[in-house]
Structure formats: C-alpha cells, structure tokens
Write a structure and sequence with these properties.
alpha/beta; Rossmann fold; 9-stranded mixed β-sheet; 5 helices; 9 strands; about 25% strand; Nucleoside_phosphorylase_sf; Purine nucleoside phosphorylase; Nucleoside_phosphorylase_d; catalytic activity
Length: about 190
Amino acid sequence: MKNIKIISAGKTELFDFAEPIGIGLINSAINLTRICLFDKPDYLIFIGTAGSYGKKNIFDIVETTSASNIEQCFVEKNCYTPLDNIISFSNDVSRETIVNSSNYITTNAEVAKKYLKLNIDIENMEFYSVMSVAKEFEIPTLGIFVVTNYCNNNAHEDYITNISKAKDLLIQRLIDKRIIIKEKNG
C-alpha cells in the first residue's frame, strides 16, 4: 500500500484524518518540507477551500494538479518575474483548473476577471507552495478544493458563512472516492 498523506492548511480547515501544514505560502512550504524529509509520502492530497474568480460557483468541488503564483501586480501589468510561476503534474494543463496562490485574498471583482483571462479559475493560499515542495521531492500531488466564496468585497464573510458546509463536502468527496472511510455511529 502506498503511503498517501492527506494535508490541509489548518486553523479553520482542520480534519481528523489530515495533517495541518500551516496557512500561506511560507508556513506550508516549511512544514511540508519537514514532513517530506522525515516521512516522505508516495502521494500527497491537499484538501482545502478556494475563492472563485467568477467561473466556479459556491460549493463547486475542484480537483487539480496545477497551481500558479501570480500576484495582482502581474495581472495589472505593473511587474514581471523571471521565475516559472505555474507548476503542474498534468500533461495537459489546458484541461486543468489552475489554482492561484498568494499570501493575500483577492477582494476586487475587477481584478478577479483578469485572472480568468489568464485561465486561472480559483485561489487558495497554500497550493502553489504544496506543489513546489512536491515537485522538489518528486511526489505526485492532487488538490481537492471546495469553493467557499467569490473573490469580491464579501470574500471573508462568505468564507466564514460557508466553511462548515465546505468541510462536510470535502469529507464526503473523500469518502465517495474511498480515500477515507468514515465510521458510522448507530
């Protein structure tokens, strides 16, 4: 049996069966690197929530192996980077949902539309760093996300309102895919 490790950010996204790795790009990279150094998994599944730039709907479930790290200044054409800012384990990225990661949550609907023009549909703060570490350690990785909010001025309030149901949907998805087994009481 392969050593499959399920990970999540933590804080409000805690699960009995997932190891929390921290919120944001830095903490998640540090903690996942530590995991990979001391008990390297054969496969990683990162579960969490995401904000939609407008194409995906609230409570949509997205599975992907592609992430980007594109900052707002880039979509507004105010900066550039010499770094490769998209990572994918897919052979056909054009068919993948790309998850953008930043330490900041987009709250401007007009900026969100600019991400859509780059074929980026959702954002999650940690997935790019998860994919970066996984690539370095040559660990295939899948991200499973439930959309909790649109990237607009209500993003935080909608996230708070929808997080509980989103976590239930993630658990059910993992049960349906036979990744976890939930014991039934009575």
